[in-house]
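Handout, page 2. Input:
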Amino acid sequence: MAGIVIGVQLPGLLALSYFTNSWPLSLAVIVLLSVPYLPLMAHPWRDRPQPFWARAALLTFFVWWAGCLAGWLLGPLVLVAARLMGLSAGVAVTAASVLSMAAGLRALWPHPRTVRRTIHVDNLPPAFDGYRIVHLSDIHCGPWTPAGRVRQWVARINDLEADLVAVTGDLITSGEAYVPAVSSALGDLRARDGVFACMGNHDYFTDGEAFAGVLRGAGLNLLRNAGQLVHRGDDSLYVSGVDDTWTRRNDMAAALAARPPGRFTLLLAHDPALFPEAARCGVDLTLSGHTHGGQVAIPGMARKVNLARLVTRFSMGLYRVGASALYVSRGAGTTGPPIRLGAPAEIAVLTLRLRSQQTAEGPGAVVRVAEAIRRDIHGVQDGDQHVVVGN
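Output:
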């Protein structure tokens, strides 16, 4: 881990050595900037309040580190462009450094984008055609996502006037310090048919049973391997939730046990690794989080090139297996360094439509790289990705 933290800073080291003409001085600056973060590596998931000076030092490091990370991509591009334009090396290095540090600052932007997506599904009861679900995931309330910010997100969601709000776990990072705050904030969520939630792996980095009780006390419909019907006139859909996979509490059969035969099923599952099983069980739509979209991704190729792809193929956006669909949120908060490069935080507004209502759409034969980058930057995701799942 220490090697990654230091290695990412190579573009910054090269730039500093160019400007200072001193390798020892450049190395000293990097060590000085890294010192506040290195002790945290021993306990990367531990959340605890920090004094102002410690937060200021860490923020400085995070901006620097994110800028160096951006420099791996921007640096070569700017240097090549400068050479083609006949600019001096000094101008090229300065431009690359400024752009990289600007990207580093932007990476700490704490406000999720509102992503709107229409999902066409089969088996949707007519009364639910046009049904709007607001999907919130991976809040990670803690020092870098304080309760006040979560309350701002709650206010934004309430202004959307959703039919249903789905909260898919990882409400904290660890410990009990932020359990009352995040539970109280989420208790203010409002939707026509209620607020439903499931537990994530980080929600058990404390006393998970006690946390579940606090969430229920705040008014959330917490679904732990359970489900219930939501009615619209004579029609209904089955809303279910499955528990955490890391602690092996997940039980798909129990979550779907009360489902009437043939009923449209919405499943809240923090870990998208459960999607293949959900598809085999006839779940129509699964909502997940967990991946954060990798937090770091390559703009224009974010769906395919991000850190989460090292551990899962379901990293962000919409996937399908037959008639079953999965939507993976990039999440609202962060873990580890509170940065996002190419994988912006999101609050998703998902509109359900009968597949028969789908109109012909899609990009032309040629997709420009600039358009792909624009879609990533603004939180717009590509079309459905169909996957094949073995038994």
